[in-house]
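Hello forum,

I keep getting stuck at the same step: I have a sequence, I want structure tokens, and every attempt I make locally crashes halfway through. Rather than fight my setup again tonight, could one of you with a working pipeline run this one for me? It's a single chain of 111 residues.
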Amino acid sequence: MAESDPARILDQLAQVLAARKQADPQSSYVASLYEKGLDAILKKIGEEAAETLIAAKNRESQALIRELADLWFHCLVLLAQQDLHPQAVLGELERRFGRSGLAEKAARKST
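Reply #2:
Ran it on my machine without issues. Output:
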């Protein structure tokens, strides 16, 4: 299996999720989430986060991978709903790279 390009995959997903804003909620799961609004999207993220925790706690590797994929997907739906691109998150991670997590948390508290 060829190695995938995460940035390309995120960009493609972002494009599809943005396009789903114009889709029929009867024929698109993502469009139905957009129609239901922010609270429905947040609820779904919470559900997927809980399922991720359970899979991790149970040490079920394949279930953990599936649940993380669901969680990440719904976080991408949230970004699109908020008119944000995954590149913004990648940029923030890049900004933090090489910096102590303790220093990062301390800097957030002072702002």
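The chain has a mean pLDDT of 93. If your local run keeps crashing, start a new thread with the error log.
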